[in-house]
Amino acid sequence: MRRALILLPPFLWLLLLVAAPVAILAGIALSEPAPGVPPFLPPVSLEAGWQGSFANLLTLAEDWYYAAAFLRSLVVAFLSAAICLLLAYPMALGIASAREGWRVPLLALVLLPFWTGFLPRLGAWIGLLRDGGWVNGVLMGLGLTEAPVPLLYSDAALYLGMVHAYLPFAVLPLTATLLRRDLSVEEAAADLGATPWVVFRTVTLPLSLPGAAAAFLLVFIPAAGEFVIPELLGPPEALLVGRALWGEFFQNRDWPLAAALAVALLALLILPIRLFQRLEDDGGSRRAASPPSRSSGQSLDMVP
Amino acid sequence: MRRVGLAVGLSFLWLPILLLVGYAFSADRIPFQWGGFSLRWFAALAANERMLEAAWLSLRIAAGAATLAVLLGGMAGWVLARHGPFRGRAVFGALAGAPLVLPEVVTGLSLLLLFVVLQGWAEAALGWQVGRGAATVLLAHATLGLAYVAVVVQARLAGMDPALEEAAADLGAGPFTVFRTVTLPLMAPALVAGWLLAFTLSLDDVVVASFVSGPAGTTLPMLVFSQLRIGLTPEINALATVILALAGLAVGAAALILGRNGRRGPGAG
Description:
The complex is a heterodimer.
Chain A: H1 2-29, E1 32-33, E2 40-41, E3 44-45, E4 49-50, H2 55-62, H3 64-96, H4 100-111, H5 118-129, H6 134-141, H7 155-180, H8 183-191, H9 196-207, H10 209-224, H11 228-233, H12 241-251, H13 255-288
Antiparallel strand pairs in A: 1-2, 3-4
Helix pairs in contact in A: 1-13, 2-3, 2-13, 3-7, 3-10, 5-7, 7-10, 8-9, 10-13, 12-13
Chain B: H1 2-23, H2 40-47, H3 49-82, H4 89-101, H5 104-126, H6 134-158, H7 163-170, H8 175-204, H9 207-212, H10 220-230, H11 234-264
Helix pairs in contact in B: 2-11, 3-6, 3-8, 3-10, 4-6, 6-8, 7-8, 8-11
């Protein structure tokens, strides 16, 4: 009885503020835009019954403009996640193999930028990348270019901003996985004559794959819907899902189409999200099992 | 090799931030241009009424949202780690985890639509006209924070042996005493960390706030974002420096509290 008192408040909260909004979102995606406040006709009403339509979702499927936005978003998310993973791996390895007293301060150094405000960091990149900025100064000082290169509002700036913002997210799960690994396996491999590179390639790397996958997805999922970074650093014409959705909502006031875009984005991300949650569940239950009795063979299975 | 990779990554993360802090003390009007040491941009910031008003609003929203998030997220984390099986557990877990993985634009738009529907009902049923603003942002941020707190608390409790609580119960402690004297102290570091996480998350959010806020609820990130769209000003560098200093202090304090608790706590070995 008392347990229900602890269960109910968060459960009701989540039903009202997580489940209901997504259900309403799906409903509005099937509604028709109409002048007024709010600017749509509800898909179902007491007087008219069903008055929804699939027109918004059809528009997304048929209009090449939106397909291109989705494609571009996936490419940007994939490349951002891949670059983050490549940068994060040696960092996580460095933290995990540091002496014990150093690990927490090093991890704090990785996480502190994440706590300093996302917008000011983007502001710094705006200041550094503009024509008379630092980066161009360095390039010109090195004699690599004579005139300033237009860096700001380019794809390069977009990726710099993405990687800078999301890198800490990738370092965390990788570090956790690498810290949990059994060092004696690596020692055994080394004792049996494997060179450090062979040990890394055949032992460390395969054992860290679940962490690497989690790191990749932790960047990929939010990056696919990212709005602020492309808006502030990317090329103005670059159309991404996040920007398309924002534009339909705030500029065109086409709420049903914005909702349809959100639903389509969710549908596209449902596989990566499920995969990420399985990785998390797996890591969590393995952390909870006190003796490491389970083999890593079932790394992708749900452990009851 | 490993140290080189770590050094490269950390410099990439920190170089822009260190430059930003350094140039916040430059007198030049153009950001990231050295014009001699000056505190004029901090003075300008302190005199900027709009910025101060937005900052005060954001701090209040963040504190309220983080507190709500710790209460609800603490319960949710406890349920996930200790409650045992119940009908709807899978749904509960999925809902508690959803805000962590939903793209910001989806969260923002879906919460706005909920608030619009609720506003419509309130007006139709009660004749009560409610505007959107600070309150809707607070509810949205509390929901995001709840999910983060739940994860942190669940992880903390999962790493603790339930036998501790069982032993207390065996020795005659009632459920409330067990919770107050055993479970709550075990959860405390996670609750502190979760509060700080929810607080910073709220202070940093521009997308969800932009969707759910109203004309009277311009938060600090919304204001900074609208200025950055026009261009960078030295004032924003000064503001970032202040935020960085405060975040550093908060992290230092948290590290002290967590470090002390970790050494004292039963899990330390």
